[in-house]
């Protein structure tokens, strides 16, 4: 019989290739977060996804986790094509570009300053969260990991000062759909410091996925949570007062 990894890998590969959804309840759940990361790595291998970047996070038990961002990255004004029936959520984030490799170094932790020293640019980033799982509210986290943390696409927007990461609390997050405001609140990161999940991932104890390499984009997590788009059309996002970027959901 196929293993959990094989069954889930094959279902998610088919869904990503076909831009379709699968029922969450019909899928096996990885036994651990580590197994979920392993499934994600298998999916990336089958789909031959380039490791263009990573979305990083910290799980409830403190385990650092990541989802592959294969690109190609969207540009301002581009169109994002979602699967029929999929929920699309918009996240305003700060992305970093790696200027040099960050070697896997489990016995010699990186400091925040050292990790920032490996980065040469920061950007306003907009992530589109689009899970391959239908009705994914309440999804077990290990299954969410297998689905690359629900990563759908990523828009790389205007360049920001890297020091923006030091204190984003003075900034505002605004999102509108077809001219109607759907989110307008101060920026808040779930871990306080947007660098926290990136630092945790750089200091991970096991290397399930690919490494952190020069040229990759690392997105540091949402400053507005996951904002559900109630429909399709033009999305305008603002990280006030620094930058504005738009795209179209279709």
Structure in a nutshell:
By secondary structure, this protein is an alpha+beta fold.
| Succession of helices and strands | HEHEEEEHEEHEEEHEEEE
Uncertain stretches: none
**Between the first and last Cα atoms, what is the distance in angstroms?**
39 Å
Largest sheet: 7 strands, mixed
Please work out how many helical segments DSSP would assign.
Answer: 5
How many β strands by DSSP? 14
Strand content: 25-35%
What integer value in Å does the Rg equal? 17 Å
Shape: globular
Q: Averaged pLDDT, please? A: 95
Which percent bin holds the helix content? 10-25%
Q: Which structural class matches the secondary elements?
A: alpha+beta
Q: Would you kindly provide a written description of the structure presented here, covering whatever features stand out?
A:
This protein has 250 residues and is of the alpha+beta class. Helix content is 19%, strand content 34%. The strands form three sheets. Strands 2, 3, 5, 6, 8, 11 and 12 form a seven-stranded mixed beta sheet that branches. The protein has a five-stranded mixed beta sheet with strand order 4-14-13-9-10, with no helix packed on it. Strands 1-7 form a two-stranded parallel ribbon. A hairpin with a 5-residue loop joins strand 2 (53-58) and strand 3. The longest helix has 15 residues, at 4-18. The termini are far apart.
